[in-house]
Amino acid sequence: MAGQLDHQLSRRERQIMDVLFQSGQATAAEIRQGMPDAPSDSAVRTQLRILVEKGHIRHQQDGPRYLYRPTVEKEQAKKSALKRLVKTFFDGSAEQAMAALLDGSTPSLSTAELDRLEGLIQQARAREKE
């Protein structure tokens, strides 16, 4: 499902998914409030219906309203989005993406963050040797 999330979403559908990943679950009105340049209420409801049909979200009755939530975990979606970003903007190169993050134009990383990255690199090297 996470791989499908990459290619099958319109801009508005991605905005809805962003709101849902941030909140965990939300009503149509809450989703609309969280969207930039939000479309009409009926347009949001139409997009929600489409996302349910595609299997990206599910809903449950909560009194007179529906609560919507993603069908994939946020962590899965993050990995999928990152892969798409690296493929699109860095020719699939994780090294180029990391270099862009570390080139000094972004906020500097803390010592703890650099240590964590160093540990992850060491783990990747160890896996490569296996």
Provide the gyration radius in Å. 18 Å
CATH superfamily of the largest domain: Winged helix-like DNA-binding domain superfamily/Winged helix DNA-binding domain
CATH topology heading of the largest domain: Arc Repressor Mutant, subunit A
- CATH class wording of the largest domain: Mainly Alpha
| CATH architectural group of the largest domain | Orthogonal Bundle
Describe the protein in words:
The protein is mainly alpha-helical and 130 residues long. It has two domains: 2-70, Winged helix-like DNA-binding domain superfamily/Winged helix DNA-binding domain (Arc Repressor Mutant, subunit A), CATH 1.10.10; 92-129. Helix content is 65%, strand content 9%. Strands 1-2 form a two-stranded antiparallel ribbon. Strand 1 (57-62) and strand 2 form a beta hairpin. Helix 3 (28-34) packs across helix 4 (41-54). It is elongated. The model has no long low-confidence stretch (mean pLDDT 88).
